[in-house]
Design goal:
16% strand; 49% helix; elongated; Spore Coat Polysaccharide Biosynthesis Protein SpsA, Chain A
């Protein structure tokens, strides 16, 4: 079914891409074929997050064959969170789907997501059922970080992904009512509390080059998530203070007992251990406080989330 180009866009697909030139054409073709079966008008917006390969040139070429394929090129690599926000701000659909360019998010799940949206779900989460395509290190780091955020942050993101469908109302809330610069998309969508539905999928083989995510980038994402959704790490400092106080009482008791029995106060090893523990607690506390101050500093600067150097098929003025 081919709809008129003038028909209002119903489904927007946002595809963040960073150095995905090798497999982008196949990915976009697969996504487009899936959207074509939806019976609704659609658009695909590829957000090039500062790639240094032929990613945006591929988007330009694809757009010449189908005007519904559009592109936004960021001036540098601002990160996936910024790329997704750029896509949300330029999407015109009544429902917006975020999907990765490497096809590890299966496009075959899109019809089910659209069906659940039409049944009333405002947020459709795609949850990973299996990660067998990831290495052991990737699975282990993702497990630790996801469970840490879920346990401390008060939001359930276990096995969650950025593969989601959002109703227009949700998109407008994220874009216009949540102004923070340090964003964690998975957490924000879970925090909103609107009508949700969960679909499960197995992670497919990656299309194109190897994953761009490293352990350090995952760790940075985890720190952003924790500092964005909970102040519990700051309370840990208080617990460390009480632990130090209790340790101090034990040392005082040991010293008094030694004096009562007329023994020399040796205690050299005990004092060294206490100093090391207290020093460690202080450094950990300063580190935790420093992370929150760094996030506050980023927010106060109020720089834009991203800068755009080129567009294909989208208006220069964002949707309001």
């Amino acid at each position: 079914m081919t709809l008129s180009p003038q028909a209002p866009t119903v489904i927007s697909a946002i595809v963040p891409a960073y150095n995905e030139g090798q497999g982008l054409a196949i990915a976009i073709k697969t996504i487009a074929e899936t959207l074509e079966t939806s019976g609704s008008s659609w658009e695909i917006i590829v957000v090039d997050d500062g790639s240094n390969d032929q990613t945006f040139q591929q988007v330009d070429l694809l757009s010449t064959h189908d005007h519904r394929i559009k592109g936004v090129a960021l001036s540098r690599n601002f990160g996936k969170e910024a790329a997704m926000l750029a896509g949300l701000e330029h999407a015109t659909g009544e429902a917006v789907i975020i999907i990765d360019a490497d096809l590890q998010h299966p496009p075959a799940l899109i019809p089910d997501m659209i069906e659940q949206w039409r049944l009333g779900a405002q947020i459709v989460h795609a949850v990973k059922r299996d990660r067998k395509e990831d290495s052991f290190g990737q699975r282990a780091s993702a497990y630790v970080i996801n469970h840490l955020i879920s346990s401390l942050g008060g939001i359930n993101i276990k096995n969650s992904s950025d593969f989601k469908l959002l109703d227009r109302e949700i998109v407008d809330i994220i874009v216009h009512q949540l102004p923070e610069r340090e964003r964690f998309f998975r957490g924000l969508t879970s925090w909103l509390g609107f009508s949700e539905h969960y679909l499960y999928f197995d992670v497919a083989s990656r299309q194109g080059d190897e994953s761009k995510w490293s352990f350090m980038s995952l760790l940075e994402l985890a720190i952003t998530a924790l500092t964005s959704f909970t102040s519990l790490p700051l309370r840990i400092i208080t617990f460390l203070g009480f632990a130090t106080l209790i340790l101090g009482f034990f040392v005082i008791a040991d010293t008094l007992i030694s004096l009562m029995y007329g023994q020399a106060v040796s205690g050299f090893a005990t004092i060294i251990i206490c100093l090391l523990l207290i020093g460690s607690f202080i450094m950990i506390s300063l580190g935790i406080i420093g992370e929150y101050i760094a996030k506050i500093y980023e927010e106060v600067k109020n720089r834009p989330h991203y800068l755009i150097k080129a567009r294909i098929g989208v208006d220069a003025k964002k949707r309001h």
